[in-house]
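Appendix B, record 7
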Amino acid sequence: MYRSEGTYIKAEMKIAPIIFENPSLLLLMERFGIEDAVQDKTVATICSEESIECALFLSIINLYNGFIPEQSEKLNKGCIETIIRFLKNSHNYYLEEKIPDIQNLIRSLFVANDIIEIRLIEKFFTEYSNEVKDHLSYEDNIAFPYFYSLLGIPGQRPSELNGFSAQEYKDHHTDIESKLTELKTLLIKYIPLKNSPAIKRKLLTSLFELEYDLTIHSRIEELVLIPLIKKLENIIE
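Structure tokens (predicted):
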């Protein structure tokens, strides 16, 4: 897992040094759909070229660097679609890349250490990944369609969502990332593993990375998206 040294990012800063400082921002760039080489461009230039609201980009990128968003009050409802697209790209990363990678590492660990404890680890992570999948499905199929409906996008709101609100979404929100601490503790403190230090290291690193990224994911929803949705609900009412 990568962490920054605490730089607060501003629009006039060049983006390349920021990525060198915190490589986890490569995921952020990918989720915003930024694929071109950044050269010596500033954050403001990148946002302008990619048609991304700079205040939104700064809010999210600074979350990755450990800062509570200071730009949120500048955001408008036009940012909601961009946030949802960003979150959906995060979902794809968890489901198609990170979770399968961790499952493969656990299987490799069992091959190297044929002990019952690894089977328990596999069972624990399978149950956890199912919980994550349920959480992401709830967002994709209930919360996000409701948010789209507030924007007036036709055909996005299932009939069963009558009475749904941002507050209900917030109340339903769970800290799915926190349960990974128990799994990491088991691997570090209690389970004897021999002949597989590289696999153990890669597995723990992946678990730390997933936990970190899920934490950012939750903070984007709680600190950026939900306040915007509540503001929009108030306008519509």
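Remarks on this record: The chain has two domains: 15-74, 77-236. The mean pLDDT is 88.
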